[in-house]
Amino acid sequence: IKKGKERHADLVNPPIPEGIHPYTPGEGYGSNAIPFAGVSPKTSKRRNPGNRMKTIEMLEKAKEIADKKKEELAQRRSRPPSQILPLPQHVFQELEEKGWLEMLTSKGLEVEAQEAPNDPEARWINLQISGDEEMV
Fold first, then answer.
1. DSSP bridge partners of 110
2. For 59-105, what is each residue's pLDDT tens digit?
3. Distances (CA, A) of 40 to 3, 9, 35, 36, 43
4. How many CA atoms lie within 13 Å of 102's alpha carbon, on the beta-carbon side?
5. 11: Cβ–Cβ under 8 A, 6 or more apart, which residues?
6. Phi/psi of residue 87, each to 5°?
7. How far is CA 15 from each of CA 10, 22, 32, 36, 45, rounded to the nearest angstrom?
8. CA separation (Å) from 6 to 48, 69, 125?
9. DSSP class of 50
10. DSSP 3-state assignment of 131?
C-alpha cells in the first residue's frame, strides 16, 4: 500500500495521453481555473465549504486588484507624460547653476526636484520632468 503523496501521485500528475501536449505559456486557462492562482474551484479531494470560500475570496481579491490597476492606468493616462531622472547632487547643482532647469521651464515643461527616498545621505536627487510628450 502506497502512503501519502505517492498514493495520490496519479491525481496530482496524471499521465498525458499520446498526441496531447501539456500547457505552454500563453495558451490561457480553463474556464474553471482562477488565472495566476492555480486553483480549480470545481475539483478537490474533499469538497468542503472552506475550499469554496477561499476560492470566492481569491476571486474577489483578483477583481479588486484588476479594478485598482484599471484606475491607476486611467490616472496615468490623464496626467501629462513625465520622466524621472536620478542625478547625483553635484550634477543637479551644476545644471541649476548653468540655467538648464530654467530653460526647461521656459520651454513649457514642469520641473520638480526631490531627494531620493532611499538615500539617507542625500547624495542623489530625483529630477521629474513633465509636459508635452515630444519634449519629455
1. 130
2. 888 889 888 988 988 887 887 788 888 888 889 899 889 999 888 88
3. 24, 18, 10, 11, 6
4. 6
5. 45
6. -125, 140
7. 7, 10, 21, 23, 18
8. 23, 42, 58
9. H
10. coil
